[in-house]
Design brief:
Number of strands: 9
Strand content: 25-35%
Helix content: 25-40%
């Protein structure tokens, strides 16, 4: 654009010189863009293979689940969701008590909510309180503190019903942190066939 604007003030040879130089640089750019796209394609392919190997390794490995009374149980992966940040585990030889599910679509703004988890690698079975703040895409937004380690824990109502699975916390400049949870009905949609729903 700058070359076009200055063309009228240039000699023909000067204009041709800069035009040729521009075309050479554009050709270099095209080649580098092609190389970049090819490298990105190779990276995406390699990363997909890495993820698949990781999932295969995880599906063959076991996990230790520690209950509130310090009982340790072995668990195995049943399935890892391809759509959500979720995995379904099965405890071996143990009848698991559970918290009933609630209606994540029936939440109202300001409704008290509680996040349960084990943050920071050692603070077992902690509870943080907050409110239902709204929805972001297909996630429940809450002011209940969700710290590293709380992911996978339940987000529950005052009545003790699970309405979501804590998944992440977004922190940015000037914001202390906004917590998000996957709605329980999405979890049931993912895994209902495996748990008889």
């Amino acid at each position: 654009a700058q070359l076009r604007r200055q063309r009228s003030s240039m000699q023909q040879d000067e204009y041709r010189h800069w035009k040729n130089k521009l075309e050479q640089q554009e050709e270099v750019l095209r080649q580098r863009r092609y190389q970049f796209e090819e490298q990105r394609r190779q990276f995406d392919e390699a990363y997909e293979q890495y993820e698949q190997r990781l999932l295969n390794e995880l599906s063959q490995s076991g996990f230790t689940v520690v209950l509130a009374d310090k009982t340790e149980l072995q668990a195995e992966i049943v399935i890892i969701s391809e759509n959500k940040d979720l995995a379904l585990l099965r405890l071996k030889g143990y009848k698991t008590p559970f918290i009933p599910g609630g209606n994540a679509n029936g939440l109202h703004h300001g409704q008290p909510l509680y996040a349960i988890g084990s943050p920071l690698g050692g603070m077992d079975h902690t509870v943080t309180s907050g409110i239902f703040s709204g929805r972001s895409s297909d996630l429940i937004q809450t002011s209940a503190q969700i710290s590293p380690g709380n992911s996978g824990g339940p987000l529950i109502t005052e009545g003790g019903q699970v309405i979501g699975v804590n998944t992440l916390k977004v922190v940015s400049f000037g914001v202390e942190g906004v917590g998000f949870a996957i709605p329980i009905h999405d979890v049931m949609t993912e895994f209902g066939a495996y748990i008889g729903i």
